[in-house]
Sequence to fold (1245 residues):
Amino acid sequence: MDFLTWFVIVPSLTVIGIVFTKNMKQTRLAAALGMSVQLILAICLVFMYLAERRAGNTAEMLFMHTHSWFSSFNITYSIGVDGISVAMIMLTAVIVFTGIFASWMVDFLSREFFISLILLSTGVFGFFISIDLFTMFLFYEVAVIPMYLLIGIWGSGPKEYSAMKLTIMLMGGSALLLVGLLGIYFNSNAGGGALTFNILDISKVNIPIEAQRFFFPMTFIGFGILGALFPFHTWSPDGHASAPTAVSMLHAGVLMKLGGYGAFRVAMFLMPEAAHEMAWIFLLLTGFSVVYGAFGAIFQKDLKYINAYSSVSHCGLVLFAILMMNKTALNGAVIQMVSHGLMTALFFALIGMIYGRTHTRMINEMGGLMKVIPFLGVCYVIAGLASLGLPGLSGFVAEMTIFVGAFQHADSFHRILTIAAASSIVITAVYILRVVGILLLGPVKNDHFLTFTDAKWYEKVSTGVLIATIAGIGLAPLWLSDMINDSLNPVIIQLSQVILP
Amino acid sequence: MTAVIPLHYFLIVSTLMFFIGIYGFLTRKNLITILMSVELILNSVNINFVAFNRYLFPGELQGHFFTLFIIAVAAAEAAVAIAIIISVYRRFTNIDVERVDTMKH
Amino acid sequence: MDFSFTVWIPLLPLILFVFLGLTSGSIRPKISGYIGTAGMTITTLMSYFVAYQYFFNRPAGSETFEKIIAFNTVWLNLTEKLQINLGVLLDPISVMMLVVITTVSLMVHIYSIGYMNGEKGYSRFFSFLSLFSFSMLGLVVATNIFQMYICWELVGVSSYLLISFYYERPTAVAAGKKAFIVTRFADLGFLIGILLLSFVSGTFDFVSLTDPQGALITQGSSLTFMGLSVMTWALVLIFMGGAGKSAMFPLHIWLPDAMEGPTPVSALIHAATMVVAGVYLVARLFPLYVFAAPDALTIVGYVGGITSLFAAVIACTQNDIKRVLAFSTMSQIGYMMLALGVSGYGDHHGLGFMASMFHLFTHAMFKALLFLAAGAIIHAVHSNFMTEMGGLRKYLPITHITFLIACLTIAGIPPFSGFFSKDEILTAAWEHDKFLFFIEYAVAGLTAFYMFRLYFNVFWGKDRHYHHTPHESPLVMTGPLMFLAAASMFTGFIPFSSLVTSDSKPFESHIEWMIAIPSILIGVIGILVAMWFYKKENGISEKMAGGLKHLYKWSYNKFYMDEVYLFVTKKIIFNNISRPAAWFDRHVVDGTMNGIASVTNRTSSGIKGFQSGQLQKYGFVFVSGVIILVFTFIYIWFN
Fold:
């Protein structure tokens, strides 16, 4: 069995294991165990990857493995990773791991809950290791479906509505995406070979420009919906607001990254000409959504809505950077995906923990929590500071890489857009400090708050791991950035053929 | 031999019966009348069978056999249908097809 | 001389921050105070050692002070050319700043042991102080502009944390938020400036950016935007960042509110070190300003001049002693900016640069002293308002003397240090721009007046009714006062023109008595007027205020700048951008999505009647279909 397949097998085994557990204690123990193994695997993968690169292996993808699956259509189970997927796998492993601890106390149908959660993560892991478009799409769907159940059953508020909205919008995206992927597939024989779904093979073929013009927007929007591309982002506030803690974490932390990753790996990488032609439309949209999401966040009253809009802004920045199409900006986009994933997961974890105590998420009903739950309060402040781009935490690295990269663009249109997008750092500071000021600081608003207990051990594990990762990336970003940088070369070569002549 | 009644006389009668049956089947709301319409349709087919058998293949008997079968089956069917109708009537005190719609919801 | 150990100067406070932050709550608060202070002492000693080695032990035969990169490591690679390094750059201004920061920081640490005694969050306070010291030290030794930006943000956040230190007090929370957001807005300018600069030059590195023989200065950039060269834009935007941190008009509004923080914090951050970061930034990029964008330098000078006058006028009418000091800080920083604005490059032309750095140095000492003394006063009478004070000289003798020394220093009375540095600034202004020169004369008089207004109101005049008899602070608080008073008295004799100059070459400077004597006289007049008004309560000041009613009212209300900002942010930005954005999202964007969903719903409920489940209807459709088909086929066959 090759190494990467374990990333799909371990969660599947965990799911099977959970089926046989008897009560909540056993269930969560099994889930935690499985995901710890997964986290260790991911860490091993990072080290193996770096060792392999240091040993001079310059292949585009490492740890490749191909197994024919449906030979008449040339669909294969092809897997392999480069620096970008390694980073995303690491991110997913951390978030799923912490998500398990954040939902330690789910007692309603806990077995089914953990099964769905881990099933979802299986899809995500599979997505990141696939280099076959069809397999990728398959895993993508595996990740989307459990989301419906998780929100619809364990959610809060208007959960049926939110679950329905989220699923239908994402399914709409999938429909576009499927057409786009098939379009790529049926044009993949332009070089004279057989039709193929394999990304690496397709990248060597020049898809005719007419086809690209048609299929690039479909693929990009299809992934963009998942990445909260304006104006298809409205599932995100409602979805996040209704989802249970771990699901919000996974969704904002990882699932939205599927969009950015796909837009980059499939849309941009395979159809660079059309990407270059149409980038300006999407640049305007994403540049707008960066500022717009931030402004939208100022006026929200529900903690989760604030965070959802902030995600719109930050994920907009990811797509924005991808469309800038130079190495630094792309590097920044990937770091931003990792960074946003971690900090938004931290945010949602903390919101869940605060909600578990106060039973409200409305900020004007809370106040002075720093005094009663200092540990969670400090964590929330750290998350906020990461979100507004404080140096030493991951957000700063990502944003600065993006801004510097995007600003190196030769075209002044791109540079002006960059300045506009950069103005979001001020607005972000406004809404973060507003929340921190109202929620945590000031006098204790309600005497009932004085009875709260501070974080339990499992909550400390969950937040501690996330904060350590955020600070780790923020303090020593070089290894991550270099790891991503190496893997960007194929894309840059693809793009330079389009942009330079 | 007296003048033979032409085949199309039978066919006209059976066609009329068939369409009267169809009409009744589509328009009547009462289950009993619907059942009666179905009987009409069946019997129009019976007439056709017998008539064609007699005129086209006088030496054969398949048409007659078929007709007998249909009569037997129709009798069984009527028995079952009336049993259902009676149960429906007992349950809903009414045998109007449009009102008996509990299963739809 | 190997200077690589200097990397520990910023790192030691960082380690202290992490250590104190993690152990906060698990070790006794007193202990963490001592640990923090001990660490700061080591850092201070290292800085003094570096300064001694750098200034007085330089390699024989070298005329100039070389820029030494003591340490440099890659932090992040951005493009092939651009990379962010973290390192230590030693040159005259950074070494001077090391001395200033560590000295004031150490004094504040010691003072806080007494001042914060018994406060909740004592160890948190010391860990934040360490964080601030780390960021500020990292800022001044930055080898490249991006490292400076990194530390710039970190000092911003430590300032936020320290202003909101009393986080249960809503005003403190609001003040911290305001400080952070206003400076963040300015930092956006800084960031864009950095982006522009790096786009033109392809480097972040200070040494190559500011090299007078470098390509950037000798060739410049042909790019223009809206009629101004890109260099001017970049440097004006960078100055915007500096103006935000240094509370220059019109980005000053956060500084008076920042006085909500504990007084030692005001002394360290909002008087001596962080607020001069803007001055330091301009000084750091000074060759660029002089050669590549003289227009930007003129802007710097005028902003400095306007701020110094504006703040001095406001300071004359404030009643909260910390706010008076805050406006005085603004005014003095305006002086420094102005000095940079009127400076040229190289030996005597660079007088303004030298004067600015000199004033920065002396100001740090005497302003820290003023704040710490104010802290001692507040500690004694539990009030911030000078209307509730009076006759305190009997109760607080040491504070009284040190405060008086500081007031004389800031008023520019010889032989105190403020006289020397202010005189150099005036000389530079005289040679460059007469208009700014006369503004500075006016400000000198106002400064003397408002400082002595404060002094006489607090220490002379009538005894007030105090809750308990005010008593002098313990030695741990008065010690730093005395040290800083000595520094204020004697640092004026440091021969700055042979140490810290624009081109790192020493030059001769001497006091221009023709300019100095009128300025002393103006200072003395200011003092005498204040004495006449306030030494005894005689109602003259009220009459004067009545006579200048409008000016008084505007000044008392800080020229309504806060209201203007509130109007712009609350009324315009929040109500006209943010609220509509939130509404638009809910009702238009999301409305469209929900609209599509409801159209689908309605269409399906419209056609669901066809699937009624009634066999008769199906049958009807079926039969009619058959009939239509039959007739169609018949029709086709027969044609």
In short: Strands of chain A lie at 62-70, 75-81. The radius of gyration of chain A is 22 Å. Chain A has a mean pLDDT of 86. The first strand of chain A starts at residue 62 and ends at 70.
